[in-house]
Each structure stands twice: as structure tokens, then as C-alpha cells.
Amino acid sequence: MRRLALLLLSVVCCQMSTVFAQVGEPRTDLAVGVNGGFVMNKVSFYPSVKQKFKMGLQTGVTARYTCEKYFNMLCALQGEINYSQAGWKENVKDASDTYQRTLHYVQVPLLANLGFGRERGGVKGFLVVGPQIGFCIGESTKDGERFNVPRELVGGKDQHDLEVQKKFEYGITGGLGMDVSTKNGHHFLVEGRYFYSLSDIYGNSKQDPFGRSANTTIIAKVSYLFDIKRTKL
User: Fold this and answer.
1) Does 69 map to a domain?
2) Contact in structure between 96 and 126 (CB atoms under 8 Å)
């Protein structure tokens, strides 16, 4: 799966390079702003751990540089610095008990942004795709009484006792959205995005409890951007 994801990312990057290398109408539009939204996260464990989606928050800053209009497609590069809450929530059989782990990340996606629609003063749909890196800056646990007693008394699983071993994270992210812009340079964005981590949060050797332990995230977010540099049309 990792090799397939890396292959797809390589193909996308090659296609983006080809698009940006074409001769189109040049643009030098720079927009910056803020973003925020909700995330639904699971950790892909192998051997598997029964989970529900863990809800969390994401917020950060966004910068988008539009460099070219190629036919009806607006080509841009987009970068973000986000704080995001990942982790997992276990599907505990005893409804009176709980266990969830929140992983706090600083994440930096670097995206190709391809837009179709009204350039200014209207609605534009867009596709974003690209690599994302992150760093775990902390973690917290919420559990019930059964998980608070000594582990040897309840036969708890290894993930309950392990802190994050690999704080650096990398993967690919992509999504679709809509940009509603005004003629004077304000942008209101709504989008959905998916992140697939290519790295694990725990060691994955034969001596480790898990061969796979990676975040997978569904993101719903809104953004507000304003132009600080605009091409004269």
C-alpha cells in the first residue's frame, strides 16, 4: 500500500510539473489567511484494534500562490501550517467504559491547487493534492476505570501503555473544495480532504507489537483568504 501511494504521488507530481511547464497566461496572485475545521481520525493498526472515528479539531494558516491560467484551469501552489488532533477511540464492549488517545500534531501540507470556474467574483471548484509532513508535539489519554487499574489485572493491550515512538510523520493528502470569491479579493473556502500516513507512530520491527500503526484522517474545513497581491487582468 505504501509503495502504491508513493507511486501515485510521483505520478501526480510529474503531471503537476508538466502542467506548470506549459505556456499559459501568467498569474502572480498571492492570498493568505486562516483555516479551521473538524477531523475524524483512526490509527490503522496491524494486528487490528477495533475503533470508532475519533473526533478532533484542526486550525492553522494558509498561503496560496496562483502562478498560471492554463485554458480554463487556474494552477496554484498552496502551503499550510496547521495544528491538528489525531489519535484513536477504541470500540470498547463495555458501554460504561472508554479509551481514547489524542495525538497533537503540527502539520505542514504542500499542495498543488487546480481550480476550475470564476477567477474573481464568483464560484470556483478546486482540487488539492500533495505531500504532508507533521510532528507530534504531545499526547493525552481519556479512559475509564477499567483502563486505570494495573494492566496485569485486566489483560490490557500494548497500545494502552505505549507512548508515541515515532513523532515525525509523513504521507499524502488530497481533497476537493469550493472557493467563493469577491471582486475585491476576499475568498471563502469549503473543502473536504483525506490524509493517508506513510509512517507509523510505533516501531514496526518483528519485536514490536504492531507491524503497522498509521494515522488516517478525514478532514472537513473552512478557510478565509484575502489577496495581498493580484495580477492586473
Assistant:
1) yes
2) no
